[in-house]
């Protein structure tokens, strides 16, 4: 029916309009209260769900979002337990990340997983578009989403720790780190992302037959916006290596995504 479709379209663009406005405010005034950080994370997560809901039923998208948030948040909660610290390593959450769910993990962390997985998967679909009819396309999509989730965290960690002070990492026996973050964390992100994708993918497969849909650029826009925000924050505190990493990830994903969109 046209009315609900029209309403959902207005909701979608309204969410993205608010997200864009807060994004601009955050770039212009980085010292705003943590309420603004929470609002941006929440809007980005909801907008990501709404974007996927344009081509899939919400009864599929919402459970996939719950699986993503539940597994990602639970994994971080386990890492926050002293003397356990798996799968990411020993992490301590700060008040800046927001109130904690059941005194375990800040409410923003599960939403960060929704942002990373939903948009990482969307970018992966663009990159793999030339191979969408290949037999093992689904496995490649799951694997590439895991790689992109790890790349998202590579960009996120310096911003979340050194710029926003959402959390901090306790020392481990691992000598090699990235901006103070142990390498186990990034392997953990890839592993948890793969687990999420294996469980959520059946919900995210379009069951109705039909012509191939046009490329959806929304995940790429959100992805690049997040990287731009991370880079801007690191640049303000004089951290050059994170800025270079963010730029490299943004450039590589953009080149491959645009290439895939042309098919």
Describe the structure.
The longest helix is centred in the first third of the chain and has 27 residues, at 2-28. This protein has one domain (57-261). The mean pLDDT is 93. The strands form 3 sheets. Strands 1-4 form a two-stranded antiparallel sheet. A two-stranded antiparallel sheet has the order 2-3. A two-stranded antiparallel sheet has the order 5-6. Helix 5 runs antiparallel to helix 8 (240-261). The protein is globular. 38% of the residues are buried. The chain has 8 helices and 6 strands; from the N terminus they run αααβββααβββααα. The protein has helices at residues 2-28, 34-52, 58-79, 108-127, 137-163, 183-200, 218-236, 240-261, and strands at residues 91-93, 100-101, 105-106, 167-169, 177-178, 181-182. Helices cover 66% and strands 5% of the residues. With 263 residues, the chain is mostly helical. A hairpin with a 3-residue loop joins strand 2 (100-101) and strand 3.
């Amino acid at each position: 029916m046209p009315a609900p479709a029209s309403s959902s379209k207005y909701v979608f663009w309204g969410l993205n309009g608010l997200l864009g406005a807060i994004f601009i405010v955050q770039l212009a005034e980085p010292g705003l209260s943590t309420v603004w950080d929470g609002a941006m994370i929440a809007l980005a997560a909801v907008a990501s769900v709404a974007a996927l809901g344009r081509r899939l039923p919400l009864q599929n998208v919402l459970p996939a979002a719950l699986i993503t948030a539940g597994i990602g948040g639970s994994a971080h909660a386990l890492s926050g337990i002293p003397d356990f610290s798996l799968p990411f390593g020993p992490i301590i959450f700060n008040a800046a990340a927001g109130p904690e769910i059941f005194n375990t993990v800040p409410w923003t962390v599960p939403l960060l997983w929704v942002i990373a997985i939903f948009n990482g998967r969307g970018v992966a679909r663009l990159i793999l578009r030339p191979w969408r009819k290949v037999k093992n396309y689904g496995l490649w999509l799951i694997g590439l989403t895991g790689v992109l989730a790890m790349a998202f965290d590579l960009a996120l960690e310096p911003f979340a720790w050194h710029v926003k002070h959402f959390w901090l990492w306790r020392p481990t026996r691992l000598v090699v780190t990235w901006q103070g973050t142990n390498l186990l964390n990034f392997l953990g992100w890839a592993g948890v992302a793969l687990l999420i994708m294996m469980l959520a993918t059946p919900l995210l497969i379009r069951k109705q037959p039909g012509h191939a849909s046009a490329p959806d650029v929304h995940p790429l826009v959100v992805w690049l916006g997040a990287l731009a925000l991370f880079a801007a924050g690191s640049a303000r505190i004089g951290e050059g290596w994170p800025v270079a990493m963010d730029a490299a990830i943004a450039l590589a994903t953009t080149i491959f995504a645009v290439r895939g969109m042309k098919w």
